[in-house]
Amino acid sequence: MTKDCILKCGIISPVQHSTHEWRYITICSWRLVRLSVMGKITRLFGAICSIALILTSCASKGAEDVEWKFSEKIARSIQPDGWVYSFEYEYMKSGEVTDGDVPYSFYGYNLRYRYPQNETAPSNQMIQSLETKSPQMKHDATAINEYLMMSKQKSPTELMQKPLDNIDLQELDGDLYERLMKEALEGTPHAEGKYVGIPRYAMLNEQLFIDQYEFQIGFLSNMGCVDVIYIDVLIEDSSVPIGYKQLSDLVENGSATNAQADAFSALQKIAGGIVENNDLMYGADQYQAQVFDNIEFSRLYLFLQNIEELKLEGYVPKI
User: Fold this and answer.
1) Are 9 and 222 in contact (CB under 8 A)?
2) What does the pLDDT look like over 97-154, one tens digit per residue?
3) Tens digits of residue pLDDT in 253-308
4) pLDDT digits (tens, 9 = 90+) for 179-221
5) What is the pTM of this model?
């Protein structure tokens, strides 16, 4: 597998809405809840870090209970530094098109690090996005999505004929963007899964260091499927400006102890099972009683269980 991994799937645009089927509700610290009256499909656009995995096939266990009125396609590029770039295309299964719909969108989030790696102090930042990465990337993301909004009446074939339409990109790799667009528009519809109420994206963590560590979980989901999940351990360290080091970094730079490396390996196995089986509790039972150094996996079990049950309030940073 190359460092630049492409995922063919599907997801809805955060700016898209239909004037007669969807209604929007703002809820506490969550950005939006998107609720389908006919399909009873709930979406939380929430605040969301660290073992990056990509979905190549998503189990649809429980999807028979949900009536999905739309289909989605998506292509993702997952970078080693945690950035995930996505191009999305949504369309109604009925073929219906409304004037307000914007079927195309492009965005990116960092699912490994809540803060930039040069951060000098903790902030209230919920998640890194293209708009916060740099002024140049903000320019690129804004220009692309404005163009996609203006192109909402174009068919996928027409859009691929002019993927950038002479947009002057300042930081984003144009070849990457065009490849993601092509992968998404020519791809197959996303699978339909059971997690209809799960946040579309999230960066969550335990809000208190216990025994000098916290678990952190970041993920992206689409149509009831957990597409990307990244699990990490934040290890308290007062010598670091943000107050902690990440287990993934210790393993990557070779400074992790044997027990810490074993913990990280277990996290990889759990995350892999979650994505492959579309089951947040997959493998958690097996490791529930495990302790690596002082890292108790019973806390991870509870964390994943609460995500599955949408009990997320205790894992969202206070703004």
Assistant:
1) yes
2) 766 788 999 999 999 999 887 777 767 778 899 999 999 999 999 999 999 999 999 9
3) 999 999 999 999 999 999 999 999 999 999 888 899 999 999 999 999 999 999 99
4) 999 999 999 999 899 998 899 899 999 999 999 999 999 999 9
5) 0.79
Burial of 309 (0-12, 13-18, 19+ CB in 10 A): exposed
- Residue 261 belongs to what H/E stretch? helix 258-277
The helix/strand/coil state of 315 is helix
Q: What is the dihedral of CA 259, 269, 253, 231, to 10 degrees?
A: -100
Q: What residues contact residue 90 under an 8 Å CB cut-off, 6+ apart?
A: 10, 11, 12, 13, 16, 70, 71, 72, 73, 101, 103
DSSP tag of 124: S
Identity at 73, one-letter amino acid code:
K
Task: Say how far apart CA 59 and CA 278 lie, in whole Å.
Answer: 5
* Half-sphere exposure (Cβ direction) of 117: Cα atoms closer than 13 Å: 8
Are 83 and 71 within 8 A, CB to CB? Answer: no
As a whole number of angstroms, the distance between CA 101 and CA 92 comes to 10
Q: Does residue 132 sit in helix, strand or coil?
A: helix
Return d(Cα 7, Cα 3) in angstroms, integer: 12
CB neighbour list of residue 179: distance below 8 Å, 6 or more residues apart: 6, 75, 77
